[in-house]
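lol ok so funny story. i was supposed to be doing the assay writeup but got distracted and ended up predicting the structure for this chain instead. priorities right. anyway since i did it might as well share w the group, maybe its usefull for someone
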Amino acid sequence: MRRIIMTVVMAAVTSSGLADDPIGIRDLNTHHCMAPPATRAAWEARASELRRRILVGAGLWPMPEKSPLNPTVTGRTEYADFVVENLAIETLPGFWLCGNLYLPKGKQGPFPAIANPHGHWAKGRLEMQDDVEKAPPPPGKMGDGRANLPAIGVDLAREGFVVFAYDMVGYNDTNQVGHGFAGTLEHWFGGVSILGLQLWNSIRAVDYLCSRPDVDRKRIGVTGASGGGSQTFLLAAVDDRIAASVPVNMVSATMQGGCLCENGPGLRVGTDNVEIAALAAPRPQLVIAATGDWTKNVPTEEWPAIRAVYDLYGAGDRTACRQFNYSHNYNIESREAMLAWFVRWLGKGGHDAPRERPFTLDTPAMRVWNEAKPRPAGISSDRELTEALRSRTAAALAKLASGSQARFREVMQPALRTALGMPDPPARRQAPLSGRSLLIVRPKGSMAREADQIAEAVRPRMTDVRIVEVASDLIEPKEWWDKFRSCYNVTPFGLAARAVADQLGEMAAGSRRVDVVGLGRAGLAALFGRAAVTVRGGLIVDMDGTDPMDEAAMLPRAYAPSLMAVGAVPTALRLAGAAPTVVFGLPTAPDRALTDAKRGMLCSTERWNAEAIARRLTAR
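and the output, tada:
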């Protein structure tokens, strides 16, 4: 029995990206807490998807090649029982990450090591606020929050740890660009973000620690508070060299991070900081919270969800929660809890409750660059850094594309789905396949007559013909930049592509071949929906006068975070494999990058009518 089905599917998913998520439009203050899976296998599948989401959003998928770090020490100060060095490492050619290295004195290595990113305190890694008198537990009076960040390095070095305390981008000596770097939707379209840069810096900081002969590579930890807490759980999530972590005053189901550097392209679609922090499981993790900020409910809501993931591994003893009665802080009680945790899990033990002892530091002498030792020439503007990051990503993608088609599909089809806001596809039972089907994708509210004409013309040759209507309105970039909307929500283009992919996946389960036709402004959604599903069949795509290699033209029509970073149209065409492909409605002759992505593809600047499309479909 042959049939034609007209389906409007745009309501199938919400902008959060999950079919069963009732939240709708989210922002950084929308309450959202993970529901732990019932089984370890379910969690590990989810964890793989989440790690990919972080790396795709950070512009690190596929992972770029790492250039030499060229570590440079510009100063060294010895104190009675620890040493401080001023250190810079070249995380990208011409871009320097700076900080201080705290070293044990009079002890024998190899030592455990700690990466220590900082939060948004005015003096960054050099912030040394005096602690207040110890606050009583609730319901006693809450104490004021304080942060003495160099104390972290001093405390740990005294306990036999090597500590690299490094800058946020735009702070202190890491100031080749400001902290507002990559602050446009255009940057996110290209997979460039300050969150991604800082995550890369953290990965390279671990590379440096692992390169030191006095460091035990199996005993690497990370801790930071506030914005440094965000960096802490993101690094622990994606870098399995991190053996223990202590995120401080940032794991929350409510406020997810108010700065540009804590929000990234597509990062929290369908997820939240709680679930990202749980990716550390089963490695030891102490979650520190405060009664006077957005982590006030951690002991009763967020941490039990994390503990449930650890329980799936039988590792409930490897996570703990400590909450102190202060406003936002990294004060002495939080530091001593962190210190005890790292001594327990990474150190040699010896005592359960190490205490912080008084110390003095010459913080002006801890700056990395000065007149005598200026920063080497290198990247000097936002534009240069953006170009360097884009070039790095393109090189990694080109290297992958030069290999086998199977490997390219294995790596990039999940990445494309992630950029579009699609979850991993469900496993489908494969029945014996027969027949040929057609999926026609048209813009909502238009081209119905053309779609019907094509369907009627090919119906005698098809076992199943479906017409899917998808929204294709242009987006307003300012609207999608406001409150980092595409960090938390699937874009209209992502929803349209998912609608196509869902229908196509269903049809492919019962047909030997499924051809796809995309009409008018729906052509791009048809192309990307087709690329997101592995299926045999031809592809006919209307570019509707849009140059697919022109990012300015593509953004309002096909915005999805990091879409350009994963290769956009060339990647989508490459994922079509050997399928016969027609791309028409191009504004000019196709770019070589387009034709190289799909050998044998027919490209045309002409507009194809329904008759021409039907003739192409019935010619084979």
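Residues 8-22 have pLDDT under 50 and may be disordered. The CA atoms of residues 90 and 451 lie 55 Å apart.
back to the writeup now i swear
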